[in-house]
């Protein structure tokens, strides 16, 4: 299950979108160097307000490029980084991976998938009606989140567009992704 890095993004401020870069550096146990969500403890503003000592399970945000085509079919134009992701990938079913999957990015970096992004109403401020496209319901009425996955950096390294993405599934029973 190999794929490709399409774009890498970061923002030093707590902005909704993140500008694309030529490369980003992942730092083990911390996240994306120079990004507002870098750190051992949670950096997301609403989570900091609840408990600033929580571990940061959202060091890196990844979205599959295939989502952008789905959104375009629904009338929304979204480019890499505009939904706040650090990495845009192609060819890997991010949403179908189990918790604990290791994503090998380029030559050195490794991100462990911790769960699903739980999108908020800010998405509708970006584009009206977009939230309904990235959060829906399945046939049984369960919530389906499509706005990417979150992870922690297990091994640091430089990541660039065009780098390979290789998914290494965890051993044992696979746990489905839940929101983090």
UniProtKB/TrEMBL annotation:
<dbReference type="InterPro" id="IPR011037">
    <property type="entry name" value="Pyrv_Knase-like_insert_dom_sf"/>
</dbReference>
<dbReference type="GO" id="GO:0030151">
    <property type="term" value="F:molybdenum ion binding"/>
</dbReference>
<feature type="domain" description="MOSC">
    <location>
        <begin position="18"/>
        <end position="168"/>
    </location>
</feature>
<protein>
    <submittedName>
        <fullName>MOSC domain-containing protein</fullName>
    </submittedName>
</protein>
<dbReference type="GO" id="GO:0030170">
    <property type="term" value="F:pyridoxal phosphate binding"/>
</dbReference>
<dbReference type="GO" id="GO:0003824">
    <property type="term" value="F:catalytic activity"/>
</dbReference>
<dbReference type="InterPro" id="IPR052716">
    <property type="entry name" value="MOSC_domain"/>
</dbReference>
<dbReference type="Pfam" id="PF03473">
    <property type="entry name" value="MOSC"/>
</dbReference>
<dbReference type="InterPro" id="IPR005302">
    <property type="entry name" value="MoCF_Sase_C"/>
</dbReference>
